[in-house]
Amino acid sequence: MTDQDLVARAGGVCEFCGAAEGLEGVEFAPAGPVLLCPACRGEVEVPEDHWRCLEGAAWTAVPEVQLAVWRKLGGIEAPWAGEARAAMELLPEVEGWAQAPGAVEHRDSNGAILANGDTVTLIKDLPVKGAGFTAKRGTAVRGISLVPNNAGQIEGRVEGQRIVILTEFVRKR
Asked: Where is the Protein YjdM C-terminal domain positioned along the sequence (predicted)?
């Protein structure tokens, strides 16, 4: 699909929130590209309620967008996101993509795909709840494990403790 086809399909707006500035296609394998604004691509910090736009986007008839919304909702921990994801009526091809093994893509803060065993670096000081220490920015976490069915989380060892880390706070080495 060309950039012009993507813009035409989306009506010249972000396919998640409807914004019209800074649009770029983002690939959601195996479906294809989705036109997103900088906020929906994760390049700009947004308030948590920004993601409520996904509730409306979930009703699209475009398979690529449906898969992208389904994956994004799976990475949001708010109760409303789980309810919205459970209420989605997926198109048959989207259902196949969503249920396929490895369908959840874990991406770092820069959008690089993460895999089991990768080494990542923390990009922010992170207080570790229940362990009484702060994982410092720049700390290398080797041999990560991906959290199944949650693209926003990985597991790794920091200071001898096995912890869950949000992918938005790591960069792949």
From this structure: 106-172
φ, ψ (nearest 5 deg) of residue 140: -85, 130
Give the containing element (helix H, strand E) for 57.
Answer: helix 53-57
CB 88 within 8 A of CB 70: yes
Cβ contact 52:72 at 8 Å: no
Residue 10: C-alpha distances to residues 20, 46, 64, 94, 152 (Å): 10, 22, 11, 18, 26
User: Which residue is it, tokens 């990475």?
Assistant: 75
Residue-wise pLDDT for 115-166, tens only, equals 878 899 999 999 998 888 999 999 999 988 888 778 899 999 999 898 999 9
The pair phi, psi for residue 113, each rounded to 5°, is -75, 135
pLDDT tens figures, 33-78:
999 999 998 888 889 899 999 999 999 999 999 999 998 888 787 8
Q: How far apart are CA 103 and CA 97, in angstroms?
A: 7
Domains identified in the chain and CATH numbers: 3-99 (no CATH), 120-172 (2.30.30.40)
Which helix (H) or strand (E) segment holds residue 146: the answer is strand 145-146
Euclidean distance between CA atoms 123 and 100, whole angstroms: 31
